[in-house]
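Reminder: ligand-aware prediction takes two inputs, not one.
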Amino acid sequence: MPQKSMDKIMALAKRRGFIYQASELYGGISGFWDYGPLGAQLKKNLRDAWWEDVVLDPCGGRPGPNGEPVRIVPIDTSIIQHPRVWEASGHIAGFSDPMVDCRETKQRYRFDHLMAYAPVEGREPAPVLFAFMPDTPSESKQRKKAEKAFGEPRVVPLASIPRTEWDRVLAPDAGKPGTLTEPRAFNLMFRTYVGATASEDDVAYLRPETAQGIFVQFKNVVDTTRVKVPFGIAQVGKAFRNEVTPRNFTFRSREFEQMEIEFFCHPSEAHGWYAFWREERVRWWRSLGLAGESLQLREHERDELAHYAREGAGTSDVEYRFPFTAPGFGELEGIAHRANFDLAQHQEYARTSLEYFDVERGELLPNGSRKGEKYLPHVIEPSAGLDRGVLALLCEAYTEDPGRASPELLLLSRRLAPIKAAVFPLVNKEGMPDVSERLHAALRRRFARLGLIEHDAKQSIGKRYARMDEAGCPFCFTIDGQTLQDQTVTVRDRDTAQQERIAIDRAVEYLEERLARV
Ligand code: GAP
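Here is what comes back for the chain with glycyl-adenosine-5'-phosphate:
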């Protein structure tokens, strides 16, 4: 399959009002994006699909490994939590990347990402080594300089060059060597202050994940609802990370939305639930149209595992082959067995027992009931990125077809398409607009909860179809001269560009049938 162009996808996303650069009027702000009218609706449709398939009808009724329906309840917790939450979770001590600064240009770089051009082994030591960030303009710029200095260069990680030799290293954007500082830990959490005094005692953090809000309310949910383990708590919401190198459009942003499930189970059942969620989450992404070889499930190697996941069943990523990662893949969702790490930490830091009393376990008593068992549940966490999901769907849907009036179109699934249908009068006169407006109103009344229904009377009909193809709209209804005689309309199918004629009073039913299919 030919490689899709990220530049073209980004241009279409802007042109059709899916995604804009945040604060573009002021030159933009790195790592932040805004969703335009179609993007906001597409994002809502993906969020709603997750909510329906996770909270309202978990897993489409598929039973869990215990043979029972999967139970999940929703929650909506604050972005700002007590700062001790982030001490307990390990984010204050551990949520950091090693960074080096350039004293000359004031640029900051991820130490473990920096590479350098050095002479091939056995050659004279070079007076200068040329550091660069892969996949940025510094890579080719520094390579040219290195070729001039010592012919065909060798690429080495900056970390492999002893610190004593750093006075010879030319930083990626610097004019003279020796300007890089020692690596230092840089915390990815955004800091803010709660209250008016803004002293160090008032420091708070914007949450870097929605998960911790769930863990700290676990006890309240158990005490105030009828849930029983195994069950999950689900949350969708914003998360913030001061990423050092935000890049690849919305893929690595500083403000993004997560869709997370923390699924609590008995420790002895964690392996079964982990296997279940791995399979279920891939199945879900496939059901939305991320089919074929561009989607994969990858089990983490032992040395990749987060500190809380080392002893457990493992961690897997659902990955998509984005145009900027191809032929490799980028993470869309992580599924981690977090064991009881988070509940144990909060239990210790808050000095409150978070143990669960399971009345269905423990020794069988003579009266037929069970003695019960107290334990800290284990957690399986399927954690997905909403913005990355939207990006993957846009990349997957983007299609070039030079044979069409719209050589670029979006083959979005009917469930997710932001515009569900458009209604056009063939010409903006001869009584056609009256009929098209009535049909538009009828369709809107019936389908508004699913997405947008557009009405457009401007430009040639070919241009209007092309515009809707680019927006990913699956159906266009056109009122023409014949409509006024026999009360029929044409319906054009985006995927085939074919038209058929149906009775106008069947239009609602026609759309209903088709939108019910993916
Ligand atoms: N609670 C676990 C957790 O937060 P994560 O792998 O760091 O795990 C989960 O994040 C998901 O959030 C990722 O799979 C990704 O889709 C999304 N995500 C993480 N960082 C992101 C960023 N900087 N920009 C956009 N999405 C991001």
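The longest strand covers residues 255-265. Residues 209, 211, 241, 243, 252-253, 256, 258, 260, 331-334, 381, 383-385, 387-388 surround glycyl-adenosine-5'-phosphate (CB under 6 Å). We will return to this case in the review session.
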